[in-house]
């Protein structure tokens, strides 16, 4: 449970940065090398590597060394896990709203 | 665009903390006062207020003063916005996988 919570901390933290979100966005269109990921940014390769490390530690991105190139790809499961956490809360909240609406509908003739 | 990006930074940052996620979780079951939100935590009221402020700044939680009580409620729209950002990326990635599968299916008789 604590481990799951730490993984969620890391995933949300990784996404709390515009550069890393742009990387996730790029990777949603297909795997890319670290240099390809670096291309749109006016940033040192060391800074890029640091961002990739944060994404990798969060589980959202998986990297694999192929010869001299480190290929990055998005983890569908990790993205789905974070998305699912939010969806569950939103749905609970909407269900409550629906229930409240029904209740108000039922009692609208009463004192209130 | 920058404003949108900063809002996303703040929303993901707000969710990168187990206490704040527990508060969002609680609020998904209905509005609550700050003291009710504080109840499960062994934490000073000042620390609780700080967490609520971070959630409020992110837009995920809206608070309203009612007499002496500050009531907090979840913003369905803000949660849906963050969830939607993740869903779009996951769906793009899945579409790519599907397209790749079709392509591999078409070329499976060929070399390689």
Structure overview:
- Two copies of one chain form a homodimer.
- Chain A has 112 residues and is of the alpha+beta class.
- Helices cover 66% and strands 12% of the residues of chain A.
- In chain A, strands 1-3-2 form a three-stranded antiparallel β-sheet.
- In chain A, strand 2 and strand 3 form a beta hairpin.
- In chain A, helix 1 packs antiparallel against helix 4.
- The termini of chain A are far apart.
- The interface between A and B is medium-sized, with 34 and 34 residues.
What's the multimeric state?
Answer: homodimer
Instruction: State the name of the first-level CATH class of chain A.
Output: Mainly Alpha
Shape of chain A: elongated
What's the architecture of chain A, going by CATH? Orthogonal Bundle
Structural class of chain A: alpha+beta
| Most extensive chain interface and residues per partner | A-B, 34 and 34 residues
Tally of helical segments of chain A: 5
In round numbers, the mean pLDDT of chain A is: 90
Q: How is this structure best summarized?
A:
Two copies of one chain form a homodimer. In chain A, strand 2 (61-66) and strand 3 form a beta hairpin.
Key descriptive features of the protein:
three-stranded antiparallel beta sheet, 5 helices, alpha+beta, homodimer, 66% helix, 112 residues, 3 strands, Arc Repressor Mutant, subunit A
Write the layout of secondary structure elements.
The structure is a homodimer of 112-residue chains.
Chain A: H1 2-15, H2 18-27, E1 32-33, H3 34-38, H4 45-57, E2 61-66, E3 69-74, H5 76-107
Antiparallel strand pairs in A: 1-3, 2-3
Helix pairs in contact in A: 1-4
